[in-house]
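Supplementary Methods S3. Complex input for the calcium ion-bound model.
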Amino acid sequence: MKGVYLVAVVLVLAVNLATARIMNKGWWKNAVFYQVYPRSFMDSNGDGIGDLKVEFDNIVVLPAFDYIMESIESKLEHFKDTGITAIWLSPINKSPMKDFGYDISDFRDIDPIFGTLRDFEDLLSKAHKLGLKVILDLVPNHTSNQHMWFKESINSTSEYADYYIWQNGTESNKPPNNWISVFNNSAWTYHEGRNQYYFHQFYAEQPDLNYRNPTVQQEMKDIIGFWLDKGIDGFRIDAVPHLFETDNITLNEPKLPNADSSLNETHFAYYNHIYIKDQPETYELVQSWREYVDHYANKNNRDEIVILTEAYTSLNSTIKFYDYGSHVPFNFKFITDVNARSNTTDFANIVNNWMKYMPDDGIPNSVMGNHDRVRVGTRYPGRADQLIMLEMILPGIAVTYYGEEIGMVDNTTLYMYDVRDGCRTPFQWDDTLNGGFSNNTNGTWLPVHSDYKINNLAKQKNVSDSHYNLYKSLIQLRKKDVLTKGTFQLDTSTKNVLFVLRKDERTNETVSLLLNFSANETKVDLTKLLPKGQFKVLLANVNSTLRKLKKSESQSEQVQKTDTTDATTFYRKCLKKKKKKKRKLHHFQPTVRKASSTFKEEGNSLVFNTRVPKQFVPAGENGNGRAIHPRDIIGTNTPIQTPQSVDANRRNILQFSKIFYIT
Ligand SMILES: [Ca+2]
Ligand SMILES: [Ca+2]
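Predicted complex, serialized as structure tokens:
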């Protein structure tokens, strides 16, 4: 009998080993993650604050009016239509909202402002049916001072006494050391109840958890497990570099040698944070969470659970998270290290440095904005499309902050609660009351940006030349093999032009992006940049004169029939024909003129030349950007079908057979 039992046990083990595995590994590798700031996305109950979906029982409304119930859940189709892979919700947990959800008083519940757990489960279920992944914000560094743990922790004999970082003050009743909060002033706040100071990297209402206490580490794992049990697909982890502090409280932080002269001892940016940021234990903690989610996915046969990490820190310290479990260490360098005055080399350096230091098996990512930073359309006046096109064509993951898809800009004069209010205004759905965000006639928690009548999703959906349709087309384009698997190369040899080339080595198909950083017409010699083949324009930024060519597409078709050789030969033919047969040439010339583009012969080169539409050059609004207008295009190059027909002397010359437009 004993032998029989043993066989049974071995069999069961074998079955478990065979079935338990992480499913759909790498689903996130070319994903577009879309950050929803729930307060500003969609308001279903008319209180002026965005929500998930308020339970029917909670509001006084007849069933017949059910259709007015709009919320994030009701807008899931928007994400699906747009081609988004995953939505990331900024915190929806119960919170006193001192930091609008980043101060959590109950990690296992939804704040009533946003709805209920049931609402969230409905949203998740509907999202999954639509094939959308849902990522939640995990805020592990601190809790609200209203959290039960903190309230209990005030009692130094409580089992929660060491959940936070408590210290005695100095003999002269000063904070234990000179550590400064990210929001400036001392990171220590005195609490009468315990007659001690507690540490907080952010607001005083956000006491830091003590991760040197193993029980706290287990608590956070249990919270992660709670949400994984609900079925979520991953976490964006907040404020990661601040998780650990040195355990030697006597150490004061040194002043930064190059601190700005306008700063003093009360400013966070005054110090070199060698003791309260980027500590080695922080990386080990993130690694432990990765192990936890991998184990969970493996045990439950779940799709891979993705971890995205928010870390504003040095390149090295950011990249290091790849080695410690983060699938997506956010690349904020496009936000922090470049601005509207940066040149193509500055941008190229960001991309190249990331690629250089990233581990071989890492996946790059690009972030152009979020709820803490001025919107990309405001940081780069008139050039939002340029940055979005860049992040979409670069390899890896793109992260979109809500509103970027319609070119929303900051309300730069807004300051009601927080310096960050300007980038948090409600999503502009249409030109109705409150931009379609809320039906509250008394206004919304933050006012909708005043440009909503002319800049909104409904309008942009109906206009082919719109930020939204460009964004949507970019996402479609990203799904091509050449962008999901293709190689990548940057070129800055043309002054003021950043050239990105992606190439599918198996098919030789390429997609290239040309970003003109200058305010002037710029010539680009594509023959030096692109392999030979047929060149066609796929996409151009909003208001680009290239887009106007769409109207003459039929004429372009005519060109295609005429041309069977290469562009230079073709251009020569046109010049000859111009003298003899004006009528026939008409098919070519107006196309060029309407595009404000010219093909000029210079030696053996084909020069692609775009012209600036002067009327669209903005005057450097908000004073933080130069007057500039992007003329950015994305072209694709398909291999020549019959290469033997190409003249050997013309190998560097692109065949021009068709101009094609997608809007
Ligand atoms: Ca609401
Ligand atoms: Ca901390």
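Residues 482-650 form a domain with the Immunoglobulin-like fold (CATH 2.60.40.1180). The radius of gyration is 28 Å.
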